[in-house]
Design goal:
about 280 residues, about 40% helix, alpha/beta, eight-stranded parallel sheet
Amino acid sequence: MPIIDSHQHFWDLAMFDYPWMPPGILQRAYLPADLKPHLDEVGVQYTVLVQANLSVEETRWFLELADQNEFIAGVVGWVDLTAPASELNKVLDDLQKHPRFKGIRHNVQDDPDPNWLLQPKALDGLRELAARDIPYDVLIRLPSLHTVAPLAEKVPNLRMVVDHIAKPAIAAGDIDDWAKHMREIAQHPNVWCKVSGMITEADPANWTPADLTPYVQTVLSAFGADRLLFGSDWPVCLLAGSYKQVWDALHEALGPLSEADHTKIFGENARTFYRLAV
């Protein structure tokens, strides 16, 4: 079973704008040649490349990168899920022609409406994804987390994965409200969870794996090893640590695992959820 990183990014500031991007280390192009040595260092063989810009053009560029780089097993792109059905269907028809197009994500965490996922237009778009068996990455924080379980009930055939364990306030040590929602969400078998993006939610300069452990153990208990996916969130993780530090910290936070559970979290679940041809 290959080892798969279910969540990484590329970007090129000469091609697209990234309004979310903080100043500093992220403000440069990050491309496949920059990532490959880090994958090789820890033994990751394939990745899922996830959107960073709200445009279909970026998604098409990512699919070109996948054509050029065998390690990119899948692309999670962006479409306007609230667009009229005819427009949305045309874009999805086009994207689905590419065998490595594997999902859609929208930046719910940045939307001014905390109930965006339950808006009628958004629900229509999400139902279209479900009808096409296209999975959906849920990028979300606590203020909107209450909408995920109702969405899972309204669209039970939509495969969803919560990115970055929903970005709890690890640096502040807040866990109770987040954990309550995550346990509710985990009761829905169509929702999975990425153990990713955590070191940037901790104190970037002073975090330790122990800071992550209560959060990782919460989702491990709630979702089980069958619905957790390892993700690096590279290069965003560089705000707080290296690729290998992310890799090592997750192993420590997960604690002892059976070989079968390790295989699931670090590869099999990503292959199953995204239906990767690797």
